[in-house]
Queue: 4 jobs
Job 1
Amino acid sequence: MLARFKPLLCGVFISLLVIPAVQAQPFDQTPILMPMPASLVQSAQTLALDKPLTLSLNGLSPQRSAFIKTYYQQQFSDFGYQVSPVTTEAALPIVVAVGHSQASTYRLPMLNQNEQYQLSISKTGVVISAPAEFGALNALATLSQLLYFARDSRELALLQIEDSPRFPWRGLLLDSVRHFISVAAIKRQLRGMAAAKLNVFHWHLTDDQGWRFASKAYPKLHKLASDGQYYTQAEIKEVVQYASHLGIRVVPELDVPGHASAIAVAYPELMTQVKPYQMEDGWGVFEPLLDPSKPQVYDFIDAMVAELATLFPDPYLHIGGDEVHPKHWQESKRVQAYMDKHQLATSADLQAHFNAKVQAILRRHNKKMMGWDEIFHPALDKDVMIQSWRGKASLSQIAAQGYPALLSAGFYIDQPQPTDYHYRNEPFDTGLHRAHPLEESETFQAWDFTMPRLKGSAVTGKLVLVSEQNTLRHAYIQLNDQPFKQAQLDSHLIPYDAGMSRLNAIIDSWMGPTRAQLTLSPEAGLSGRILIGNAVYPVSGNLDPHFTHADLTNMPFLSAMSAQAQRNILGGEATLWSELVTEQNLDVRSWPRLFAIAERLWSERTRTDTEHMYQRLLPVSDFADAIGLHHKKQFRHGLSSVLAQHNSPGNLALLMRFAEQLEPASYYTRHHIKYQQGLYHQNAPLTQLVDFLPVESPALIQLYQQLAQFRRGDRNMLQRIESQLTIWQADYRQLAHLLRQIPELNALSKPLEQAQEVNDISLAVIRSCIVQKSIPETEVQQLATRLHSIQRHGVEVVVATGLFSEHLLNACRD
């Protein structure tokens, strides 16, 4: 494919920088792009952006051509460029050519559409070529980032990009049920998706707490079970068309047979237990189920599918199928008789039987079925798509049995998780598939432990350690009967407690990045804490004296994924469930993390450098703001609303600097606290400072970057870190006064005290580090213990500088 650019390569690219996707490069050599393209060849020469830009489109359908011109001319103008609506000699041309003319045909986005493109920047302008319109859209998304980051220098490096995605399905699920999201906000997310090259909008429209689309066939659904918040059919068509112009498919989700409380309110005669139902406003899993023994249930589903087929042209329709609580089925004599008649032994068999009948309905309407893990059953046809929320083991099993599959576990962005956790979440399994064989000189031991949670059952686990000559060689961790994972043994954080044996071991679990900081003693047992992201959980346990060599040999690990199974994995979807998300903090929870998830699904598997990812993430966050995403605006507006009558530029700046030191608790910690407080429901206000905090503090990301540069030998970074800490230190007295003035902020007084104590420690450490004064080991341990005591279990607002201070202490100790 380079042949067509041969004259350009031979004549202009005198000094080349080749940046293949498989090799990490120094950060200052690569353009800021996310996702990174498959191949990029860059010259030291540049194209001056000193003329008006003009966009010329060739071979595109009239509808998409008109949309693209309006959309990107406005975007380039917003970046500060002069844009000419017509091509002239005085303009700088951006020429887009689609290889096969589609002038008379508008193409809907579909699975496995051709998305590849070439983008060339030469001394004469920009040339984009693509076999199909969807590749042209991707190329323009890339060019948009390049132009944004060139807005100050007004020059672009001469380069050539050849690019195509690794996975054809790169999606975002948005839950419009638990909290309703307006059409305008959805369109904004679609614009962000297009910029990140995400191509599937999975629209969750029905659930226990509401029915969100107008039905002509069963109108009581939106009249009785929506609280007046639903999408008209005209609005749905508007969203679908808008997404289509951007190259994004829209897949609706109609939840059956469970998550059906809204159906029960409107049409209780369809349910297993026929009785009056009230709208559910709480979060959780509820019992009402459609009755698979009733023919009218299938008439209902047929009518729903027929309506959805007129609104959503995509071949796929998601039926949900998750979290079916079988209690009502088990209590129903009618359902039990139906099961006997059809020789269905279990509730799982009944659901598979139901799904097969639903699949037949879908097929009659030219739709393909997809659903969550729970619908997986060998009786289903092989074209059923399974979306896995249960994890890699489930995904691997599904793909190995020949079903197309998507990964969502590890991409749940409603959970506040660090971006690098999502970035490591590879759909193809990686790493160890069995324990290391035990050498004669090695010994092993196993520990059982329990990690209580704030809601639901405790997490149980097993820790297996392999040592040689009293030196720990390998650690393996199993959680809740999941496969074992080999842990990374981390020396970057100082163990916080004295004891016979101390351990810092890290894995990625379904809960998030999971760090076990443990003290092990045969007499006293296992103690310590587990950090899930930034959230602290206590842990305790005991030595397993019965663990044998045979147990070690037979430890369950994730099976290696075959090449055929990998071919059945079509990609993944980020999921944004809206229990703690409203339209007012939607973008805060979504962006810029979605750019990193998009890169995991678009770019080469070998692109795994998380530090490089973070180097790009912060500027890409600025780009996202420039194209109209609201993550920064929602943060500012949220803090302004928290200040209420005390809002002023000075107070807002003060609170924003305090917020830089804070993060919302990771995992489902906040959900569980809300449950304990009796606020785990639809009507609970989500208007506190924690609701508007970014998942990761951008200021802390920068501090971690500076600390990494110091570790690589750049001592100038210490002064930069000290400068930021000093700015924060100067605020604490004013902040204490401000918090006392505002009753709604009184609860932040404790985090403020903790932040000040952490900052005192950090400043003392870094000032010793600057003058290269060593800290005595006893003082190091005392400081580490203090930092651990500051970090609290069961809080919604985490003083995230505490973890940074631990890293700083360890770096200066080295």
Note: The mean pLDDT is 93.
Job 2
Amino acid sequence: MKLHMSSLCFSVVLSLILLPPLSSATYQKLSGGSSLSVENPRDILVSPNGTFSAGFFPVGDNAYAFAIWFSKPTCVVHNCTVVWMANRDQPVNGRRSKLSLLGTGNVILTDAAQLNVWATDTASLSPVQLQVNDYGNLLLSNSQGTILWQSFDSPTDTLLPLQSLTRYTALVSKRRKANYSSGFYKLFFDDDNVLRLLFDGPDISSVYWPGSWLVSWEAGRSTYNSSRNAMIDSLGNFSSSDDLIFRSADYGASWIQRRLTIDVDGNLRLYSREERDETWVVSWQAISQPCTIHGLCGENSLCGYAPSTGRKCSCPEGYKVKNQTDWSYGCEPEFDVSVNASEFSFIHLRNAEFYGYDISSFNNKTLKECEAICLQTVNCKGFQYKFNGNGFYSCFPKGQLRNGQQTPGFDGDIYIKLPKAYISYNNKKPFKAISLDCPRNDTIMLERSYAKSLENGIVKFMLWFASALGGVEIISIILVWWLTSASQEKNIVAQQGYLLAAAGFKRFTYDELKEATQNFNEEIGRGGVGTVYKGMLPDGRVAAVKRLNEANQGEAEFLAEVNTIGKLNHMNLIEMWGFCAEKKHRLLVYEYMEHGSLAENLSSRELDWQKRYAIALGTAKGLAYLHDECLEWVLHCDVKPPNILLDSGYQPKVSDFGLSKLLDRGKLYNSSFSKIRGTRGYMAPEWVFNRPITSKVDVYSYGIVVLEMVTGLSPTKGIQFVHSIAEREMEYRSVNWVKEKKKESNSMESWITEIVDPMLEGNYDDQKMETLVEVALHCVQEDRDARPTMSQVGERLLHHRENEN
């Protein structure tokens, strides 16, 4: 660790010698008649406690903005966290630009051409001063203490604790990660008094949070207010006049640095960190599925997810990307758009949608009828075709293809109109997918040109000499900091661990959960990881509190696991509400499921054929989200009926995902099973043969669960622990039994009838049952590469109705 720190210090020192330091403060106040020069890196205002600095910040190639940034922990050029900028859209030159506090009480920012780029437009007869306070607010005040102007009244992309967002202000994102100019995303109070996120692009604008399909009260917002005010307090609680309230995961810690920022991807995130930590941790975010954010990939483009690269943009067939470095421009047609309507046909994109811009909507239409409607409409670029849940399909012709996304869990398809000649010439042309990473060399070029002054050798020498002196000063500071912090390293984890908790959680105390469960009185479930109790939270919500058996992890490691789980959000995954990490106690708080688990209902007549098929489909969607859609790649490793919970409408919610990570990783469960995960009867052969573990282990377990729902036979009934490969054949006898019945029979109907659970009493759909069994058998193949993905399984089950037609 010391060697690593030494290397780190050396690299930091070297960078400080080569680059002018940003954090060597010389001022706490600027008086009337004084100025700060862009050419003097020591011309910086620093808050009394040293947390914030204000000065000229590099934003491009010889381009600077007057900004406020966090100066604790010590940061170097380009790595400081900026919270405010005066001239983000009109940077100044690195020569002869300055910020001046005039004796008249006005603050002006001038560039090299002596043009006023920015000003406070204030005046005062009494002496004035400019300073940064300990909250990050740049204040201009007179000798009587009256505030004439403050940066808190004109935020850029960040809201700091105790800074108000009002009807007159808004947060506007940066353009890109390395481009600080105003971007396309905005947080503001709308005319109905509701706080909203808006995509405000060059051509169109649209609200995407809260969902535009929701009435305000359905989104938990109130329009019955007129104050239009929102603020984060020093403890991490955000409250808005429209009833939007949330807390940071580290709520209650007043010494934590926090900031609410609208990021370049359009998501609103609350960040936290301790002063000694260089890393900001997301402690809340508005949107868990980033592809639902409007405008990310531009017109005619689809946003999707990939386990290796995360979010990506794709041009569908027939379209090409406009700008490889900026996906907000989207895609453009490669074909001639003036072709006659009779010469058009359609390509089919599954699990995809383009939100909004419907020309009209038509219910109870066949696919052919919907195609005819779009072909007869001149400005129709394609149509959405979706099962509406009422027994028929709906058709939505699209005038524009915007806000596109393609995710395996989406229930609907898009048909894009293309010339027939183009489709046949470019048959099965693959998508052109490009990651949303920003270009590395992204700089702002000034529109105006400046005459560069001649610099002789003496001037260059003096500049380098001054920088060297500053470097020596910083070296001394860093060495003292390193020696001091090294002795405190063991205590940092205990103070920082909670920062890893995920967005939207509440950190409960052990006493709170003990009271909520009436001293863990009502047990509703028990497993290898822990015991689950029913409880009532102080806000009246009924919860399931899981008390973990083992507490071998440290707090920070435990919260890192909770962070992974908590970021997941899907209608078929159980929702986590909070956690407890206190001494040796480790507890997780979930929503309570009224109908318990699938295991408890398999022998009930309430679980008819329709419910079983819906459970199979919903479970597939939830697992597909874990494998392919969420930003974290998560394997469940223990898919089984007890871990599939049923809500009041018997809709499935997968639980205990990721909790296998909370077990002791070094423990040997059996001499033949090292680091084993799962439950006997549902485990894939990979576990037994010590083969590499992939997402296909969950696919196998899912297939076993589906066979159990179909046949009513448990794969674990009467099985003792498996000690050998030979005995493993007994464990998977239900699979072999179904395969034998299929092999022996001459017709599909006869062997299906033999294997179906007698509890169904013959009340099932033959074709759906056939599909379900075929999918299950496909999932339980010995060769993992021969198994489908969970996305493919969900797609097969979801589109069975269309296949029938």
Note: The longest strand covers residues 179-189.
Job 3
Amino acid sequence: MSKSMAQKRATFTALVTSFSLTIFISMFLVYIACLEEDRSIYLVLLEGDGVAFHEASHGHGDSARIDPNRGASVAHGRSILESHDLLLQNTLDIGTYTILHTFKHHINGFALYTTPSQVARLRVMAGVKMVEKDRGAKMMTTYTPEVLSLRKGIWAQEGGERNAGEGVVIGFVDSGINPLHPSFAYDPMQTFTSNLSHFVGACETGPHFPLSSCNGKIVSARYFSAGAEAVATLNASLDFLSPFDADGHGSHVASIAAGNAGVPVVVNDYYYGRASGMAPRARIAVYKAIYPSVGTLADVIAAIDQAVLDGVDILTLSIGPDDPPQDTLTFLSIFDISLLYAQKAGVLVVQAAGNKGPAPSTVVSYSPWTIGVAACTTDRRYSASLLLGNGTILDGVGLSGASFGNGTILQKLILAKDALKINGTFPRTPEYIEECQHPEAFDPNIVFASVIMCTFSEGFYNGTSTLGAIVHTSKALGFAAYILIPNPSYGDYIAEPIPFDFPGIMIPRVADAKVILQNYEDETKRDEKGSATEFCARAAVGEGRVASFTGRSPVVSRFSSRGPDIIDMKRNLADILKPDIIAPGHQIWGAWTPISALQPMLTGHNFALLSGTSMAAPHVAGIAALIKQYNPLWTPSMIASAISTTSTKHDNLGDVLMAEGFQPNSLYPSTPLDHGAGAVNPNDANDPGLVLSSGYTDYITFLCSLPNIDPNIITAATGEPCNTHLFAYPYNLNLPSVTISALKGSVSVRRTVMNIGNNRETYVGAVIPPNGTRVNLYPTLFTISPQETQDLEIQLSVTQSMEKFSFGEIVLTGSLNHIVRITLSVKPVSI
């Protein structure tokens, strides 16, 4: 080789080395930059149909039940995955992202774990419709078949409890399920008669969840954890990577909707009765997406995508985002768009309305294509009693047995701060001196066999003190019983009955606490320093586990989130009634998991008594399953309409529904912003006479009609164009209610009803106008044959401006005894 040739080769080698080094340095700098950025989960929605709608768009028929194993479906699913990989490889830097989930059935997209700078690149790429940061997800946290008259009503029509819900699959996106619970057992003597040909689920196994867990009652079980694993270090002893429910919430929800009939409820060796789900013969499909340590929307949406693919009939969401989306309309978050496509695929979605009441505009179920369920009480009460030495009896709360002698033998009564160790070394903070959180703070000789008064004070309000710690202290020191009274400086507190295996009672009212303390001071001797020297006051705690069935019900629960519905974070109001309906959600018995990862007081229990819209939603899901069984061809919106128009706005005393207010024990007349259309009435919902239904195209028109909406936003979110020639308003969506958040002058609203009965029927219409309005209905008399439709025109005019919403209804009374009620919620702004 010549010298010049060697020099050229050396120069070339040096250039290549330099170039390679430059590339390496550049990649390294990108990597370092990404390390400096916090990674988050992002949800990405792409153009193009998911598998469920791809074949329908090409003329292959009904998209609701596409066979996912069909060759064309498999091929399209594979092409979706390949397109995801290609997009990311061509857009983002290697090593800067992780794909957590791919959504390919009812929507086209994926969940990504990456940095803001990488996401910024993705947002501007062709084919990317939406990018949204994950907001996280959380849970919205027996006797009700009797309350709702199911046994003599719809259950009887469907062959009794042994057939109620047969052939319907309810999906639960939640914290999993306890497969060993008797509420989910399979009885070989009561075999299922339906073959579920429309359902194609599978059973994933893992810790505490062998293959036998899918037993015929539980027909499918899956778990989704990629999002959770990306943002948190999971606790292997609690965050089981299997469908098993370590928390209890998912089991509780599933048992309310579809738990077996007549399961004995036994807690702390006490028999509370028998529990039954709303649709005890419905099958259960489990989609675990929430873990004790964390929950992400990425996992939730992946679970929804799988549930739609599997073919569930009804999807129950007692979980979801706790707040509205930050950077888009409430209806256009990827979560809500996911629910829209589930509805398009023929799945009825039932959502918990949220637990942020009684403040207004706190619902987290925003969209008209789902049923948002608020919570109410039943007439069942668990009341405990406290007997004082002077004969006074006070009511309280506590699911525990009585103190000595079945609550008839009076014991020494002592205030916690009068029983402290002299010269003790413990901190002089409320949790030690008055809240009974630490046994070491007390003189054991004083408190033994005595009734000790603990105080609901600072630690309970900031979350550091617990009732469980009081029970521990009571057991450790041998109290006869404990009483939890409020600190007058903080006012009354809210007490819910919790089963505990030690005599005790919660007295939540300051007025009652003052009675107890006055008696105590009258009977207690003190020295000149104020220290107690002799305890002469006496008390006994009565039985708290026996239920009574009196009082007003249903009443909208204090915690239940309220309307009006909102469009965006600026709290602009939507012309949609939310919540849709109320159902029992206060003090509901349901299945539980003994591990009880987040509720130490319920550890070891197989049942729990819980309150929340989480408990209300599965009531409606189970009722929807009963309606679906009886009317298998009804669409989701038809079922939703039937539930709405047949609900009741009166309680068991014949009065208008009431609602709990901000102050404990305060009630006010409820409105549709609290209770939606009213309290669910399953027996009438099964035969409503008329329904008002909407489909996917109607929802797109609704979105395009939102005020000041940019049509491109709708197209970007849904892939559907807005037809500008359609002059529509949001309130013209064919819902079983009419909501106008700002009525100016006069408007004409359209509704279309369909006769889903078997007979021709004549209806007479009447109107109860909201205050400040005049309402005319056309026609007021019509006759309609089976499967025929009738257009209604509702003219609303302002007669007086109002500062708040006012309410009324349209009542259509049929000649065959059907009564259809359409709720009117209007805010008259100007004449």
Note: The two ends are 99 Å apart (CA to CA).
Job 4
Amino acid sequence: MINLTSLEIDNIHAYWQAANYLAVGQIYLQDNPLLNEPLRPEHIKPRLLGHWGTSPGLSFIYVHLNRLIKNTGADILYVCGPGHGAPGVVAHTYLEGTYSEIYPNVTQDERGMRHLFRQFSTPGGIPSHLSADIPGSIHEGGELGYSLVHAFGAAFDNPGLLVACIVGDGEAETGPLEASWKSIAFLNPVRDGAVLPILHLNGYKISGPTVLSRMSDIKLEQLFNGHGYDVLFVEGNNPAVVHRQMAGILDEAYRRIKLIQDHARQGNPLPCNRWPIIILRTPKGWTGPKEWNGIPIEDTFRSHQVPLTGVKEDPKKLKALEDWMLSYRPERLFDKKGKLLPELAALAPEGNKRMSALPYANGGLLLKELHLPEFRKYAVSLTAPGVTEAESTRNLGKYLRDVFSLNQETNNFRLFCPDETTSNRLEAVFEVTNRCSMQTINPADDKLANDGRVMEVLSEHLCEGWLEGYLLTGRHGLFPCYEAFVTIVDSMVSQHAKWLKTAHGLPWRKPVASLNYLLTSHVWRQDNNGYSHQGPGFIDTVVNKKSAVVRIYLPPDANTLLSVMDHCLRSKDYVNVVIAGKQPELQWLTMPEAIDHCALGASEWKWAGNMANEQPDVILGCAGDVPTLEAVAAAWILKQYMPELKVRLVNVMDLMSLSPVAYHPHGMSDELFNTLFTNTAPVIFAFHGYVRIIHDLIHGRPDPARFHVRGYMEEGTTTTPFDMVVLNKMSRYHLAMEAVKRVPHMHQQADAFISYCEGKLKEHAAYICANLDDLPEIKNWKWTN
């Protein structure tokens, strides 16, 4: 045990008490912050919100990490899993001065303390959980499960960083957190920082016990030894004893981390040492009310949120709150003006060593631009549209290979992918890097190495969380994923989008690299997998987020994919979703055409139309590579069989361009929209996803009811590519029939054409059952004039 003097223990305890006092004040008080007069009902907030139970434990850890920083000069990032413990963390950001530097109206005096209390969980203030508003934070905490994976993402490629991650015992019951323990299998002590998990067992969730808190120390040690950790315990309820324990164990954990790193960085074989984990057992609501009317509060679930309710109305409870706050002896913590006493303030680190001022927690300060290759040199050469075939993602793989090569010195780019890099035709990256693993590597393994920069693990949660932590600490990355299974992280992307939206309103938060998704193996081409892998719902999740944040791109071919991905990797503070197939497919645009098309977001493909500079009778719209194929083929069929029908084809690459400009920054002007889609012509629109999205986006456009949308209708199975579009009534024949039906002056000729199309669909159904493949005229179709 470390030999701290009694004075050192007293000062650490006093600093902790100051933070606890501020935490209680944030939950309860709107006035009289220093208790200079007896508490009265008007001093109490009208609505009592916030979480007390976890706050004293989080604050206890914070003050001890401060001591470690002061003694070692370490850069420590504080990642707080129990996000509703914000009162305890906000208190520390205020005590060490950062909060007042960022928010000058929250001054280091009685007036500022009053403002600190009044703003917490009130209109126009800050939320009850950690958020982008709080300096030093990269982790929202409003939804449990992601703290540890964010911590590892922050540590990757940051060799000088120690991430202290506080995992609540309620959070430890979630699936993503349980998967996150495996992250040490990817943490390289030579090039990465370290993560110190601190599992805080205070016993209870909202109304019941937690699983891990009821396990014995022996079982906990066995569990985490199995995960690969070396367990260090701190437990008790006597502050003086627990302070000494925590100081000694924290120093020991740091010593072991440095030994592992120093051994590896001196060129020795990579160690098999276990990384340390601290398991801290303290009472729920520690230092709070012990009981009320004989019912225990401290060390029970009753201290989880607001331990004493109704204090504004009940004089006895009001007196109990006053006694609780006075038990911290604020007169021995703050001077008469409300400023923390100098001998206590000296316990906090200074400048950027403060955890609330650490540059890693404001990653835009550290962001270095990616060196990107000239994407045009990876172009697919075309002699004519709709003739050449290529695998769009395979060309992108070559581009990404060179992104890795150009950024070898900065090492600030990684792929995070659920074991699908090769499957998604991005294997060119393995010419210059490998898959990462710190476990045993066998001779038969392929492209596996300790220093690999492709992070493959069969957990979408880990890929997403690692990438988020990596981005928020100032780096760049890409998340390629099967489209159907990226929905596993729906709530994670929602939380990240909310973080970005909040950060946009904070001038001190510097822009970070965008969260980039490449969704392939998509809904329309699941030849090996079938119905379970057919789901385009991620678009629905993302499209509803704040327009300042989200972008959705559906490049129809390889050249547009290259152009848009280059744009996404250069962008900042967005969530970019790019959806592109990996199968061989027809290519439509030369690179110059693709660049122009991407810049506009949507454009008319005049070569596919049949208008002769006249106004169209009908418009075929499309968004997505397979819908584009079917729409172009429908235009071709109409040219052959209904040449007098004037058809325009419009391809939409940037989905949000359909929206009015008032609703999204990428929205088309009314003038451009009307130029493409006219004011009156019927529009048959083939869409990659669920049809409702298009109807929502065009709301507010002229006569939106004229848009007839075909898309995914939850019809699927293991079948041929063309049968997928037939099952969902988005085939070229369905589109062509609908186009003819929507033009009144074509009705006399419609019956024969519709009979032809229906006959082709019957022929298709019979052929695939007999031959297990698509009709040659479908499979081998190419555009001809």
Note: Residues 239-265 form the longest helix (27 residues).
